[in-house]
Amino acid sequence: MRVSVRKSILSANDEQAERNKARFKASQLMVINVMASPGAGKTSLIMRLLENIPSELSRGVIEGDVASSIDADRIAAVGVPVTQINTGGACHLDAFMVDRAMDDLKLSGPGYLFIENIGNLICPTDFRLGETANMVVASVPEGDDKPIKYPAIFAQADIIILNKIDLLPLIDFNLQAFSAAVRAVNEEAPIINISCTTGEGIDTAVRWLREKSMGSGVYI
Fold first, then answer.
1. Rg, Å, the chain Cα set
2. Is the distance from CB of 62 to CB of 116 less than 8 angstroms?
3. pTM above the 0.85 mark?
4. Bond preceding residue 110 cis, omega within 30 of 0
5. What span, in angstroms and rounded, lies between the C-alpha atoms of 49 and 29?
6. Does domain 11-211 bear CATH number 2.60.40.10?
7. Number of H helices, E strands in the chain
8. pLDDT tens sequence across 155-208
9. Where are the domains of the chain?
10. Would you call 11 helix, strand, or coil by DSSP?
11. Which residues neighbour 183 within 8 Å (Cβ) at sequence distance 6 or greater?
């Protein structure tokens, strides 16, 4: 019975995700589903990327958290439209939540929408949102073994960001081991090393975003 119910939930979510995808396309929005564990730097990365989107393009963020609006408040403070989803305990966003959030956000393109998923490396993997691309953020303090421990989320990533590389001199983190672990489950996604604190590597992430967006008719 549990298997049957789970299949039904995922099937309904996938159907809504397809409707979301059509909605995003009609609105000329490139949508990035940003996933990571808590503290990896999702919000800081999103804010860095938003800084590099020209003013003539629209920008928006759907902010997912179990509770509070701390990250949404940070984004709103820099003048970017944002709407908050509080799951009240659920460890992931789903396509229905995103659909309702879009009704509140009222964002139209051409432009970019970032969806900051709940901080978790397991639950978000099963729930499509209608996104254009999946961005997985890891960070140096977490250690280089995360792709081994949580292979599914790295396997489905379109891009993998390694954040906080400014801490490499202080932490025992093996870049080669991390890259090898990623490549064991995902041979194609680019791995981009950045520091949201110093700005190192942000230009490379922006370049990827620009290239990825070309197929969506949105350019930065």
1. 17
2. yes
3. yes
4. yes
5. 15
6. no
7. 8, 7
8. 999 999 999 999 999 999 999 999 999 999 999 999 999 999 999 999 999 999
9. 11-211
10. helix
11. none
Give the closest residue to 129 by CA, choosing from 110, 113, 111.
113
Q: Which tokens in the block code for residue 148?
A: 């081994």
Helix (H, G, I), strand (E, B) or coil at 180: helix
Query: Between β-strands 82-86 and 159-163, what pairing exists: parallel, antiparallel or unpaired?
Result: unpaired
Mean pLDDT calculated for residue range 71-98: 95
Token look-up 């920008």 returns 59
Beta bridge partners of 31: 113
Token pair, residue 116, equals 């900051």
How many other CB atoms sit within 10 Å of the CB of residue 3? 7
- Tally Cβ neighbours within 10 Å of residue 5: 9
Distance CA(17)–CA(11), nearest Å, equals: 10
d(CA 66, CA 90): 7
Determine how β-strand 82-86 pairs with β-strand 58-65: parallel
Tokens of residue 122, six digits: 């397991």
- Alpha helix segments (H runs only) across the chain: 2-26, 42-51, 70-77, 95-105, 146-149, 151-155, 175-185, 202-213
